[in-house]
Amino acid sequence: MAITLNSGFKMPIIGLGVWRIQGQEIKDLILNSIRIGYRHFDCAADYKNESEVGDALKEAFDSGLVKREDLFITTKLWNSDHGHVVEACKDSLKKLQLDYLDLYLVHFPVATRHTGVGTTDSALGEDGVLDIDTTISLETTWHAMEDLVSQGLVRSIGISNYDIFLTRDCLAYSKIKPAVNQIETHPYFQRDSLVKFCQKHGICVTAHTPLGGAAANTEWFGTDSCLDDQVLKGLAEKYKKTVAQIALRWGIQRNTVVIPKTSKLDRLKENFQVFDFELSKEDAELISSMEKKYRTNQPAKFWGIDLYA
């Protein structure tokens, strides 16, 4: 149920993503998920709920529900804080009420105009296009991330939304290799070459949006979810599992970490019940044939520019 990172630390192979969950809902969600067995939580400064997550974690620790060392907590450096890495990390730690992070990721491979530590704004220019800061290199940002490890603030560091070229460059200039690359990948967007490249070079792949975004990405980006695909529905019937469980199990059998997001208790339980069955080689290959190169999470909607172009 865990993958050993190149930093030597173990990362639970399934976690809970907390994007788009706010207020009291998030406390109930985290406490319930810990009771179910979740030990890995994926956060980000840009989700604007680190303080609520911190309150939930504190309650879990104070009540004896779980110990800090039993949890794996990830959060991420936002684009506008690339020139303020240490300050941004400390801001996240303060909000999360933690002494250290298990994993800190560069959220996107782009620095944008600084708007104040922790504000996580995406400043646009007068032309409506993201105001990218061309004076801060990704190499500079990465070396600042490495400083976090030496200062004891972070156990492992990684990248997110990096392609093969950017990942290769990070390997070339890094003193501490990225432990993780968190990317969108699911049956409709498999990115097999990127996954293989990362794994070949000792970088664990975490699949954000492992269910193709489902309702959240349909609402935000107008995209379709693979959960409606007849192939997955047929396999769900065959294995007597939900379609989501089939998609998550496929991700796990690729040796990727999966971090599905849900706010519903029944789905929370379902998503964790993926260790009592295994897809046959033929069925895993059938899912692999579903590839559509279909990205469902597209921040260009908000930024006026497609960073993946």
From TrEMBL:
Asked if the Swiss-Prot or TrEMBL record annotates the protein with the keyword Protein transport, the reply is no
Which range is the signal sequence, renumbered to this chain?
Answer: none
Domain spans labelled NADP-dependent oxidoreductase? 14-290
- To which species is this protein native? Cicer arietinum
This protein's UniProt keywords: NADP, Oxidoreductase
Q: Which domain of life is it from?
A: Eukaryota
> Source taxonomy lineage?
Eukaryota, Viridiplantae, Streptophyta, Embryophyta, Tracheophyta
Q: What is this protein called?
A: NADP-dependent D-sorbitol-6-phosphate dehydrogenase-like
Q: Where is this site: Lowers pKa of active site Tyr?
A: 76
Q: Which GO terms describe its molecular function?
A: aldose-6-phosphate reductase (NADPH) activity
Enumerate the InterPro entries for this protein: AKR (IPR020471), AKR2A1 (IPR044485), Aldo/ket_reductase_CS (IPR018170), NAD(P)_OxRdtase_dom_sf (IPR036812), NADP_OxRdtase_dom (IPR023210)
Instruction: Give me the residues that bind substrate, please.
Output: 107
Give the residues annotated as active site.
47
Q: Which family does it belong to?
A: Belongs to the aldo/keto reductase family.
